[in-house]
Write a structure and sequence with these properties.
Strand content: 5-15%
Helix content: 55-70%
Distance between the termini: 9 Å
Number of strands: 5
Shape: elongated
Structural class: alpha+beta
Radius of gyration: 18 Å
Strand order of the largest sheet: 4-3-2-1-5
Length: 165
């Protein structure tokens, strides 16, 4: 039983780390131009040698970007909260009860990641300036999509899991 518990905790921590890296790292969009340094764009800044804010990120035109920012931050917060709720429920639940509250929070985190990555996929051209539109998805974008099934599986594991001795 301890091995299963350790696996669940490690899986949850790995999902949280992926969410933190995907939200913070500056590689959601990468533009490599011939003879120039690559430009890495995240949810807030575009960087090569120096960083500058994403143009018009505070305007109505970039509402999609603001939605991606908000849902990724919310997903990270919900993932961390669900971990602490799991630890609390581990000591407070009666034997045989399920970790429903932890599962709901983790499934909400999964939903937020899916929404953020989907919006970014569908609307990437609307908030990138013309010079940055010919790029490729970066590692943070891929990590966001990888963290989606991880948080989903983690939430489903909490739904099935019962507290034992």
């Amino acid at each position: 039983m301890l091995i299963i518990l350790a696996f669940i905790i490690l899986f949850h921590v790995a999902a949280a780390i992926l969410l933190f890296v995907a939200t913070i790292n500056n590689a959601w969009w990468v533009v490599s131009q011939a003879g120039r340094d690559a430009i890495y764009t995240d949810l807030w800044y575009s960087c090569n040698a120096t960083c500058y804010p994403v143009e018009n990120s505070h305007t109505v035109d970039a509402a999609y970007l603001q939605a991606v920012q908000a849902t990724m931050i919310l997903a990270t917060i919900l993932c961390c909260v669900s971990f602490f709720v799991f630890i609390l429920q581990l000591f407070r639940l009666k034997q045989g009860e399920r970790f429903i509250f932890t599962a709901i929070i983790q499934l909400l985190a999964s939903l937020c990641v899916m929404i953020a990555a989907s919006i970014y996929t569908a609307q990437k051209d609307s908030f990138h300036v013309a010079s940055l539109q010919k790029g490729i998805y970066g590692s943070s974008y891929v990590l966001a999509w990888i963290s989606f099934p991880m948080t989903l599986i983690s939430g489903l594991m909490y739904l099935v899991l019962r507290k034992r001795k």
